[in-house]
Amino acid sequence: MSQFDLIATTPMGLEAVAAREIRDLGYTDVTVENGRVIFKGDELAICRANLWLRTADRILIKMGQFEARTFDELFEGTKALAWPDWIPNDAEFPVQGRSYKSQLSSVPACQGIVKKAVVEKMKLRSGTEWFAETGARYVIEVALLNDVATLTIDTTGPSLHKRGYRKLVTEAPLKETMAAALVLLSRWRPERPLYDPFCGSGTIPIEAAMIGWNIAPGLRRDFPSELWDNIPPELWEQAREEAYDSVRDDFPLDIVGSDIDSSAIDVALAAAKAAGLAGQLHFRVEPVAKARPRGDYGCLITNPPYGERLGDQQDALQALRQLGSLTKKLPTWSVFVLSPDKQLESSMGGRRADKKRKLFNGRIECNLAQFLGPLPPRNFVQSAQTHASQASESPLSQTAQNSEGRD
């Protein structure tokens, strides 16, 4: 199989997390850039990355990169690339585009130039003058940044945050990619309790359970590249078999979510059922002021409501005060709170966060405030692990194990 450049696009702030995931899959030639991670891989890597990456949005094949200050440069640079090596004569190949700080600022015009150049290149190889575009879908993207054009083909289709289990949503839901990132950035391990007191549609608990049981997030969906000639079906079968073999569901999880909104809990229960996790997750209607999570050395991971997202600033402030009161009653727990509130520590009662990390919840700039409690003693971990069988040594089973204590 051939090696080529792949790009995992990510939400801003999650590049390092996605890079760690890629390395955990066994791909070591990794470069981190703003909003994306570039890595070397083959056809099987496309399958594995789409199935396994929890914090990336899409997996793109990098076809080429060149300076393009004029439409002629864009046309000739695009035409020089090896499009027929990937795109068959009957393929559907729409072009999407974006431009930032570049002389070629008209995105529709750039899309048209790229489409024309790809057609001309395919004519040279096939001798065909007209393409019906009735076959498999290959979405081409032209991205212009500082007069440099990057041409890619999208292997993913709908964003990877669309796992397939969330059919209904609450107001302003947290994306699955961000929820997974919060869990991966925490100290949580499967033997520890996890609690989200503002769980909404249940995304953090569900993503945590998938990490805890090492369930590949892409197992319940399909991808347009499954229909491509260049990626044989047996490679997808191999990647899915690896994923199923890597599931570790032979021990119980202690994961709880609560919310004051009963309709949100209904959505969470439906999502947990669709994810195949209804028997492992516990949801309840409960205000944070009455929350009493059980157990020691747990992780409280949450995205509390805030006015910019859900409307009422005063209610949001009250929720943070109640959250602060709750955390004071959990001396052995670690607490991870995603919020745009610049006065979060004061609002929660004055304790200073041990760490902060800038993240973007959609377009809203937030901080992940990390209040770190003590690590569990060795006998706590050993006792919890008596419920589990020996974990596989495959790189595909290491995502949850390798997450503790890293940023």
Q: Explain this structure to me?
A:
This protein is of the alpha/beta class. The chain folds into two domains: 151 residues, VC0802-like, CATH 3.30.2130; 216 residues, Rossmann fold (3-Layer(aba) Sandwich), CATH 3.40.50. It has a seven-stranded mixed sheet with strand order 2-3-1-4-7-6-5. A hairpin with a 2-residue loop joins strand 13 and strand 14. Helix 2 packs across helix 7 and helix 5 crosses helix 6. The radius of gyration is 23 Å and the shape is elongated.
Show the helix and strand layout.
Elements: E1 4-9, H1 15-24, E2 30-33, E3 36-41, H2 43-52, E4 58-67, H3 71-79, E5 95-100, H4 107-126, E6 139-145, E7 148-154, H5 176-185, E8 194-196, H6 203-212, H7 233-246, E9 255-259, H8 262-274, E10 281-285, E11 299-302, H9 307-310, H10 313-328, E12 334-339, H11 344-347, E13 355-361, E14 364-371, H12 378-385
GO molecular function: methyltransferase activity
Keywords: Methyltransferase, RNA-binding, Transferase
EC number: 2.1.1.-
CATH class of the largest domain: Alpha Beta
Q: So, the CATH homologous superfamily of the largest domain? A: Vaccinia Virus protein VP39
Count structural domains.
2
Structural classification: alpha/beta
What's the CATH topology label of the largest domain?
Answer: Rossmann fold
| Coarse shape | elongated
Per CATH, which architecture of the largest domain? 3-Layer(aba) Sandwich
Mean pLDDT, all residues: 91
Strand order of the largest sheet: 2-3-1-4-7-6-5
Major β-sheet annotation: 7 strands, mixed
Strand content: 15-25%
Q: Can you count the beta strands?
A: 14
Order of helices and strands: EHEEHEHEHEEHEHHEHEEHHEHEEH
Distance between the termini: 34 Å
Number of helices: 12
Unreliable spans are 387-395, 397-407
Pfam families: RlmL_1st (PF22020), THUMP (PF02926), UPF0020 (PF01170)
Organism: Paenibacillus eucommiae
EC number: 2.1.1.-
Region (Disordered): 382-407
